Amino acid sequence: MSVRHLPRRIAFCCSLALLAFSSMAPSRQATKADPLFLDVAAAPHAFEGQTVTLRGWVSLRHEDRNLWATKDDHERWQTSRCISLSLYASLLSRVSDLDGRMVEVTGVIRSDASKEGRVIRLGACRNAAVVVSELHQVSAAQR
Questions:
Q1: What does 64-123 look like in DSSP terms, one character per residue?
Q2: CA angle centred on 38, ends 34 and 136, rounded to 5°
Q3: Does any domain span residue 24?
Q4: How far apart are CA 52 and CA 72, in angstroms?
Q5: Mean pLDDT of the chain
Q6: Which residues make Cβ contacts (< 8 Å) with residue 97, sequence separation at least 6?
Q7: What are phi and psi of 54, to 5 degrees?
Q8: DSSP state for residue 37 in the 8-state scheme
Q9: Position 143 confidence tier, pLDDT thresholds 50, 70, 90
Q10: Spatial separation of the C-alpha atoms in residues 95 and 22, rounded to whole Å
Q11: CA distance 128 to 28
């Protein structure tokens, strides 16, 4: 074996290994975002005070109480595709059933739930919020 060709052989073997491992990774089907969710997230002031029903991925762990367009948006912390949850205390007993799931949320939109910075909202992805009146998990068939 020639030492001169060793770097090429190492690169070739590494490429094969990467290809093999990437094909073993589970494929994730991209979740499509709810068009109304995206409209509200883009212009929450246009929906101020309106009751809406939005479909999204919910995060309820620790101080992260937010509704995201998709799970990927949460993982990449895409706050423009997030609406924080307000008045969510009733959901805390259901965290283990709802956290990390696709849900439907009905509630009133508040474009500035921080009230111009007078209310500190730990864990909120942004000032836009939905005041939760109803939240339930969406089954796989409903997606």
A1: --EEESSHHHHHTT-GGGEEEEES-GGGGGGHHHHTTSEEEEEEEEETTTTTTTTS--TT
A2: 45
A3: no
A4: 23
A5: 81
A6: 137
A7: -120, 145
A8: H
A9: low
A10: 33
A11: 29
Would residue 13 count as lying in a domain?
no
Tokens 């508040």 correspond to 110
User: Residues 63, 124: contact at Cβ < 8 Å?
Assistant: no
Residue 19 is inside which H or E element, if any? helix 6-24
The answer to whether position 15 is within a domain reads no
CA 130 – CA 34 distance, rounded (Å): 15
In CATH, what number is assigned to the domain containing residue 138?
Answer: 2.40.50.140
- Whole-structure pTM value: 0.74
Domain that holds residue 74: 35-142
- Collect all residues with Cβ–Cβ distance below 8 Å to 50 and sequence separation of at least 6: 108, 109
Does residue 89 form part of some domain? yes
Total domains, the chain:
1
> Tokens 């494929």 map to which residue?
27
